[in-house]
Amino acid sequence: MSGPLPLTDANATTNGTAEPKLDAVSSVSPTEAPLTEPWSVNSVLSTLPNPTPTTPPTTPIPFLHLLERLKTTKREGWRRFGITHGESISDHMYRMSIITLLAPPSLSNTLNIPHCTKMALVHDMAEALVGDITPVDGITKEEKSRREAETMGYLSETLLGKWGGGEQGREIRDVWEEYEEGKTRESVFVHDVDKIELLLQMVEYERRGPEEAKGKLDLGEFAHVARKIQGSEVKEWARDVLREREEFWKGRGENATMLGAGKEL
């Protein structure tokens, strides 16, 4: 999850900044684990409570078990604001996949929507081992990319390498790489979907208010991601969401940051 601050030498996506994470499965964050050697898939696997194959199994079950980490690992950008019971990585990807299914005709008639849905479901899959890296982690774009590529190699070649002849694993990795490169029309759309999902969650958390029920929860610094949306259709959705946010704060008689963000789109 990227937010208001860029990764060191990196282009921010939608992760925000936050304190290091405690993974609900292993209780040790992949980015936080006390490693005495450079980050590697094996170094993270060694911290997990249950054995994970280092050679290709003949069943997808170990892969499916590892995906549980996406269900239990929280998105980090919100934790800096005291949101400790927020969305998980898989929560984020699930709503993204539903958003792709609701693409307006101007997009659904020209894009491969099932492919977009698949991309939404796998685009953050590497975070099962890499974790949700944020700017405060001090990890460069190159190092982040290396970790994610190594993880996707492990998932697709080791855990899924012997399942179905490895074809499904290769397809998952190919879709992930397409998203990372961001050159196809489908990948551009899914990047936009990534951002609108963040904006939706931002407004929902603000409406819910702080977990400790005091003060106010102003998440306006995340609104800047709307400026990075490329497609006109998703820009229109972003205007609607940001208009909702303005009405919410106006109704409370309070001011908040970035209330005019929708007018800039």
UniProtKB/TrEMBL annotation:
InterPro entries in alphabetical order: HD/PDEase_dom (IPR003607), HD_domain (IPR006674), YfbR/HDDC2 (IPR039356)
Subunit structure: Homodimer.
SMART domains: HDc
Family indicated by similarity: Belongs to the HDDC2 family.
Gene3D superfamilies the record matches: Hypothetical protein af1432
Protein name, per record: 5'-deoxynucleotidase
Pfam families (alphabetical): HD_3 (PF13023)
Keywords: Hydrolase, Metal-binding
Organism expressing this protein natively: Stereocaulon virgatum
Domain HD/PDEase intervals: 85-208
The protein's Enzyme Commission number: 3.1.3.89
Keyword match ATP-binding: no
General function of this protein: Catalyzes the dephosphorylation of the nucleoside 5'-monophosphates deoxyadenosine monophosphate (dAMP), deoxycytidine monophosphate (dCMP), deoxyguanosine monophosphate (dGMP) and deoxythymidine monophosphate (dTMP).
Top-rank taxon: Eukaryota
